[in-house]
Amino acid sequence: ITRPGVRRWINKLTSQNDLSPKTVQRMLSGLRGYWRYLQSIGVAGEDHEPFSKLDVARQGKRTSPGSARQPFTPKEVVQLLDAAIKREDGHLADLIRLGMWTGCRIEELCALKTKQVKDDHFSIEDAKTKAGWRDVPIHRELAQTMTRLIYDSKDGYVLSGLSVNKYGDRSNAVGKRFGRLKTDLGFGRQHVFHSIRKTVVTILENAGVPENVVADIVGHEKTTMTYGLYSGGLSLAVKRDALNMLAY
User: What is the C-alpha to C-alpha distance for residues 36 and 225, in angstroms, rounded to an integer?
Assistant: First the structure.
């Protein structure tokens, strides 16, 4: 583990995974503590400090207002779905359906197993942050698709049959196909699959859904002391009522 490697990791966290500098700082604090433990048992060198002297705000990827990631409009999301269907790319079409009705990250959707899906919700159980571990209601517009995907699954995954790269990543190939699709439709670097997640948040905000409710649905950390530290989280019924306000 080297400091340049940690810097690259920080850049990835802040630019691709939608994590705030505060969240990354908290992760680094835990890693520094663990590193001190490794030093105390003689596993790590006393003079080697890869997690120190790192300014997260400074290391994070800087983007100008014109290059920042943007949400798709609801109409554009439907356009993407229609284009995937016309290409007869079932995996990609189903990935877009899952994204537009849940607001989940592409990695969360591609790693979702059928055993994590219940009658009216599914559980994200392998998120990178505590807030990411959550139950997500199944939107009424997604119910039929989810039932079909589970019934057709041959490998225990909701999105069955995705190719896996050498790192075990199931989202890589289908993510690249999404990239080609959106480029062919005229979208630039400002729009990626994560933009659909931004679309969901934008629709819910405009529908008047409180921020703390949206945070529980999409797996964002709550920034206030009361909700972020003391609350045990919203009930599934409250999240379902909020998510049902999602419409295209």
Answer: 29
**Structure tokens given for 11:** 């850049």
Of residues 223, 248, 230, 227, the one with CA closest to residue 238: 227
Half-sphere exposure of 139 (CA within 13 A, CB side): 20
pLDDT in tens for each of the 248 residues of the chain? 888 888 888 887 777 666 677 778 888 888 888 988 898 898 988 888 888 877 776 544 455 555 578 999 999 999 999 999 999 999 999 999 999 999 999 999 999 999 999 999 999 986 556 656 899 999 999 999 999 999 999 999 999 999 888 777 899 999 999 999 999 999 998 999 999 999 999 999 999 999 989 999 998 776 554 454 445 567 899 999 999 999 99
Whole-angstrom CA distances from 195 to 38, 55, 60, 188 are 39, 27, 19, 12
The closest alpha carbon to 8, from 78, 64, 60, belongs to 60
DSSP state of 222: P
SS (H, E, C) 29-60: HHHHHHHHHHHHCCCCCCCCCCCCCCCHHHHC
Burial of 197 (0-12, 13-18, 19+ CB in 10 A): buried
Joined tokens for residue 194: 């994560």
By C-alpha distance, which of 223, 183, 179, 216 is closest to 201? 216
Q: Helix, strand or coil for residue 25? A: helix
pTM: 0.72
